[in-house]
C-alpha cells in the first residue's frame, strides 16, 4: 500500500477542484457516523485531542481519519494538527492508500469555507481578513480566491512575526496582502472575515461588523473554544457545515444558546441544504451572514477520493 505525503496531497488537491468535490459530496451525501472525540491530558501542556472520523460511499470507498491536535506544538515549531487518512475499497475493504491527514484536513477545511462563502458572501466581495497564523491562514486566501475575485487580503495574528511570514507567502504568489495591525479596524473593513484559531476567548466582536459582511468561523471545534462574541451570533444569519456537529461542539453557538440568546432552530441552513438548493443562501446585500464549521468526515472522504484519483492519473 502506498503512502502519500503532505506535499503530494497538496499537489493533487487544486482549490477549484476540491471546492467542487465538496459541493458534490454535500449535495449527494454519504454515510458518516458521529466522530470519536477524545481529550488527552499531557503533563505540562494544554490538553491534546484525538479524533477518529469514519465515512463511506456504499460499494465505492471507505475512509477513516485519525487526527491529533496538539495546541502546544506551535511553541516547538511543529504542526498543531497531524495524523493519517486511510482510504479503502468499498466492495472489499482492502486498503488502497494512506495519506497525510494534516494537509488533507487543512485543504478540505479551507475549501469548505470557500464553498460556504460561494453561497453566503456578497458576489462582489473583494476584501478578505484572515485571523490566525497557522497552516490554514496560509490557505484560506487561495481557497476563497477560487470563488471570489479578491483584490486584497489582510492577516491578523497575536504574533506579528507569524502574520508577516504568511503575508510574505501570499505576496510571493502575486497577491496583494498586508499585515493587519488593528483587528477592530480591519474587521470593519473586510467583506469576508475568516477566523482559523484555537482561541478560547472571543476575538471578533459584533459591534465591529458592518452590513453585508460574511463571517467565517472555522478554528474552534470544542464547546470551550470561541472566536466570536455573543453579539456576532445574534446579529448574523447563521449557517453551519452540519447541524449535528456544530450544535454539539461549537462553543461560538453553545455559549449564546446557554444564555438563551440563540436557539438550535435559529440555524438557517447547513451545507447540504445550500448545495442541494433547499436554501438560497444570502438573500440581501445588507444582511450579515455567518458560517460555523467544526469539520465533517464527509469532507475528508471527498478530499481523499479526489486526491487518490488524481494521484492515480499522475
Can you walk me through this structure?
The protein has two domains: 2-104 and 298-313, 2-Layer Sandwich (ornithine cyclodeaminase, domain 1), CATH 3.30.1780; 122-295, 3-Layer(aba) Sandwich (Rossmann fold). The strands form two sheets. Strands 9-8-7-10-11-14-12-13 form an eight-stranded parallel β-sheet, with helices on both faces. The chain has a six-stranded mixed β-sheet with strand order 1-6-5-4-3-2. The protein is built from eleven helices and 14 strands. The protein is globular, with a radius of gyration of 18 Å. The chain has 314 residues and is α/β, with parallel strands linked by helices. β8 (152-156), α5 and β9 (177-179) form a beta-alpha-beta unit.
What structural keywords apply?
2 domains; ornithine cyclodeaminase, domain 1; 314 residues; Rossmann fold; 14 strands; globular; alpha/beta; 23% strand; 11 helices; 6-stranded mixed sheet
- Which value, in Å, is the CA radius of gyration? 18 Å
Instruction: Compute the average pLDDT.
Output: 95
Helix content: 25-40%
Structure class = alpha/beta
Overall body shape: globular
Task: Write the H/E string, N to C.
Answer: EHHEEEEEHEHEHEHEEHEHHEHEH
CATH architecture of the largest domain: 3-Layer(aba) Sandwich
Query: What is the number of beta strands?
Result: 14
Low-confidence stretches: none
Could you give the distance between the termini? 17 Å
Largest sheet: 8 strands, parallel
Write out the CATH superfamily name of the largest domain.
Answer: NAD(P)-binding Rossmann-like Domain
Amino acid at each position: 500500500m502506498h503512502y502519500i505525503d503532505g506535499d503530494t496531497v497538496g499537489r493533487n488537491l487544486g482549490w477549484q477542484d476540491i471546492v467542487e468535490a465538496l459541493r458534490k459530496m454535500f449535495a449527494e451525501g454519504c454515510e458518516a457516523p458521529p466522530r470519536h472525540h477524545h481529550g488527552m491530558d499531557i503533563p505540562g501542556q494544554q490538553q491534546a485531542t484525538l479524533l477518529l472520523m469514519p465515512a463511506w460511499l456504499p460499494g465505492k470507498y471507505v475512509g477513516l481519519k485519525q487526527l491529533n491536535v496538539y495546541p502546544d506544538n506551535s511553541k516547538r515549531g511543529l504542526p498543531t494538527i497531524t495524523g493519517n487518512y486511510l482510504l479503502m475499497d468499498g466492495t472489499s475493504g482492502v486498503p488502497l492508500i494512506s495519506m497525510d491527514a494534516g494537509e488533507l484536513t487543512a485543504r478540505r477545511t479551507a475549501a469548505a469555507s470557500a464553498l460556504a462563502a460561494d453561497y453566503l458572501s456578497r458576489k462582489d466581495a473583494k476584501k478578505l481578513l484572515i485571523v490566525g497564523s497557522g497552516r490554514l491562514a496560509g490557505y484560506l486566501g487561495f481557497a476563497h480566491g477560487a470563488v471570489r475575485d479578491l483584490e486584497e487580503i489582510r492577516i491578523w495574528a497575536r504574533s506579528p512575526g507569524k502574520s508577516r511570514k504568511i503575508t510574505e507567502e501570499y505576496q510571493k504568489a502575486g497577491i496583494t496582502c498586508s499585515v493587519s495591525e488593528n483587528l477592530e479596524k480591519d474587521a470593519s473593513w473586510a467583506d469576508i472575515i475568516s477566523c482559523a484559531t484555537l482561541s478560547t476567548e472571543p476575538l471578533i466582536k459584533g459591534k465591529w461588523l458592518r452590513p453585508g459582511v460574511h463571517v467565517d468561523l472555522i478554528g474552534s471545534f470544542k464547546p470551550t473554544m470561541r472566536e466570536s462574541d455573543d453579539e456576532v451570533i445574534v446579529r448574523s444569519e447563521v449557517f453551519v457545515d452540519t447541524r449535528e456537529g456544530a450544535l454539539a461542539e461549537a462553543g461560538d453557538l453553545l455559549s449564546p444558546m446557554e444564555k438563551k440568546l440563540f436557539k438550535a432552530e435559529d440555524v438557517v441552513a447547513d451545507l447540504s441544504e445550500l448545495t442541494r438548493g433547499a436554501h438560497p443562501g444570502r438573500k440581501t446585500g445588507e444582511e450579515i451572514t455567518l458560517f460555523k464549521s467544526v469539520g465533517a468526515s464527509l469532507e475528508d472522504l471527498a478530499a481523499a477520493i479526489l486526491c487518490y484519483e488524481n494521484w492515480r492519473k499522475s
